Amino acid sequence: xxxxxxxxxxxxxxxxxxxxxxxxxxxxxxxxxxxxxxxxxxxxxxxxxxxxxxxxxxxxxxxxxxxxxxxxxxxxxxxxxxxxxxxxxxxxxxxxxxxxxxxxxxxxxxxxxxxxxxxxxxxxxxxxxxxxxxxxxxxxxxxxxxxxxxxxxxxxxxxxxxxxxxxxxxxxxxxxxxxxxxxxxxxxxxxxxxxxxxxxxxxxxxxxxxxxxxxxxxxxxxxxxxxxxxxxxxxxxxxxxxxxxxxxxxxxxxxxxxxxxxxxxxxxxxxxxxxxxxxxxxxxxxxxxxxxxxxxxxxxxxxxxxxxxxxxxxxxxxxxxxxxxxxxxxxxxxxxxxxxxxxxxxxxxxxxxxxxxxxxxxxxxxxxxxxxxxxxxxxxxxxxxxxxxxxxxxxxxxxxxxxxxxxxxxxxxxxxxxxxxxxxxxxxxxxxxxxxxxxxxxxxxxxxxxxxxxxxxxxxxxxxxxxxxxxxxxxxxxxxxxxxxxxxxxxxxxxxxxxxxxxxxxxxxxxxxxxxxxxxxxxxxxxxxxxxxxxxxxxxxxxxxxxxxxxxxxxxxxxxxxxxxxxxxxxxxxxxxxxxxxxxxxxxxxxxxxxxxxxxxxxxxxxxxxxxxxxxxxxxxxxxxxxxxxxxxxxxxxxxxxxxxxxxxxxxxxxxxxxxxxxxxxxxxxxxxxx
Length: 675
Ligand code: GLA
Description:
By secondary structure, the chain is α/β, with parallel strands linked by helices. The protein has three domains: 11-157 and 227-388, TIM Barrel (Alpha-Beta Barrel); 397-604, Rossmann fold (3-Layer(aba) Sandwich); 617-674, Golgi alpha-mannosidase II (Immunoglobulin-like), CATH 2.60.40.1180. It is 30% helix and 20% strand. A hairpin with a 4-residue loop joins strand 22 (617-623) and strand 23. Helix 5 (120-137) runs parallel beside helix 8, helix 10 packs across helix 14 (421-434) and helix 14 (421-434) packs across helix 17 (590-604). The longest helix has 29 residues, at 213-241. It is globular and about 75 Å long. It starts with 10 loop residues before the first strand and ends with a strand. Alpha-D-galactopyranose binds at residues 150-151, 273, 275, 307, 313, 345, 355, 358. Alpha-D-galactopyranose binds next to loops.
């Protein structure tokens, strides 16, 4: 990771909380870490109260010994800035840093992350600590990467206190300049909301009815920015004191309060915490989407899986352990999708506190346990293929998503409140994933020229500029698929004038006259020859949404088969320039969406990584000038046989075994093959 340390390896380890244990245990920790193949640990995440027991009084002695102990064992440290959970003295001294909910209730200390992101007092104490920390450990040989904060926005997504209100007003002044511009942007002529000055503006606190949607949208933006300002304040200190050390912060998967694309611009390496749910048979598909976001957010650069559970978590209503082989499979899935580190929460299972029933690499039962055996086995395996680190993947398809659009889409007072951005994204991504197609995930302003297929699941908010770029993309020969309720509003949640979806009408060759969302549990039949005919059975169904579409140059590929819109277009295709733009006016059942996207893919010549893969087997490629790795992952319950395009070496197979042409994967089996 550090440019001045060009050692190539997949890092392996976990969150390490030595402060929860007597010092006698620390020597055993490093011994066991070596035994388990650990190369790096994350340390200090919740150590604030212990390193600064009283305001301005520091006790780093114990932490020096922690780092020295790790470094003597040859371990690297992902060093946390310790600011994720303010110590009790701070909230006693400054109760005003505590966050408030939209209905004015205070969130008290006693858990963690109990600070208002806009609080200057919090930021001051936090950066003061970071300054000390960075200065003290700048030259420490263990320091590999900085870990700022922890899961920003995990517990406090938005704060509505007076400090936040003041900060919001400052943010709005910067964004709009004049109160007239704000009034215009927020459409305040409606419901007598016109502001005479910025001083009158409040956060969208609990109101008698729908709060102004543009105000709500801006509050999502502002809150994301307020969290980021906490990160940036710490980053500025780290850049100054330890300029050569890379910086990251662990994001949560597809996490609404935190715009991963924006945050990516301020990190040296992306990192993600992902907790696969053993009770969800499709957990790996949700993970696949998040992993694709991580890889794409910094242009294909490898990322770090900074937290996952060795087995069960403690925070779902019912917490299943990971069955044998699942932890290995899901770890390899992250690597297959571009991760260069596999880390866990946490190293040693706590005896007390809220997470004592969360699994750890060293469980309550010690090392003679399945978990420790599986962890150590994985550590050995990862160490055997260090050349994977740094390799990259290439995708022919891209899926577009945008946090701004997500925030706007899910506000109240819409045609339907049942639209869920995560579900819609997942449905489209899944159709590619199941077809074995590599996919990047980009914001609408991302570079599209390298992709032959671009999918827009549901971009409700779309600026004219980005719409024009989509047009140029298709004109130049690109293949585009747009799903319903896209291109409806501008960046202020104001409807684009000129009929829906105005900025995309010419490109799609159609006009949407009325939205016709479907009632809960209702569905509509969709009939079409050609593309949808590829789906077994003649008619298919859509649910959630329908709309009355009038074509203006597009050809109708499928029509609604019943209901008020019977006979009207449901799926269309428009040849535009040297490319084609498809439009889907309902939520197609999964098999039909898959059939349609398979068809468009063929037109676009976007092929799966490996043709003829058995169901529930994932295949990805990572490569560089010297190596080309093919990863095969069996997410299914049965054995799967995969024929390789050419004989390849099985890098996880027995030492000295020759090239193979066929791979037999047991359930949860993994193979890493090299040409
Ligand atoms: C998150 C946090 C960790 C821990 C784990 C438990 O990822 O970052 O501190 O609470 O969840 O799953």
